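One chain given next:
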Amino acid sequence: DDKPVGIAFWGDWHLGALGLDYEQFDADKAIIEDEDGLYYGGAGDYKDNYHAIKFGSTSDQVAPPGMQDLLVKQVIDDTAHKCLWLVRGCHDDFDHQIADRDFVSELCETADVANLWHGGIVTLHVGGQEYRIMARHKYKNESKLNTTNTQRNMMNDFGPCDVFAVAHKHFADMQYT
């Protein structure tokens, strides 16, 4: 119809981690669930999953690994009607590297959405307009000084898109060209 459409790039949830602002996460989740015309593309690192890379690190988390899986699955169940795709983050990949388990694929099946693995180009048609979105969790040549360096490298490597979105560094930054 003629109503506005919005897409949130929602990732780095790190559910199960100490220090996560769970009240803010719940507020963000409620906005995505309730706002008409707002959808999201998952940007990776849905669970903290830190136990997989540092022995004994489960004491640094508020939820053990199995509980983290249940927390993430519940969020995906609650928001599946708003989810367009999911991307694998580095914390999600720990399961894949260590246990040959593809948790993100399981989540994609639950939500019935595209699995972009470590990233990909999504083409959306809204009204008569086509939008190309390159979505990844992270990409090469990240820089603390030039925070959009990664997006420029993505454009150089994959060609023009309307949006280049990455999540790994946990901050919002935009550049218009």
The first helix runs from residue 22 to 34. Helices lie at 22-34, 65-79, 90-99, 103-111, 149-158.
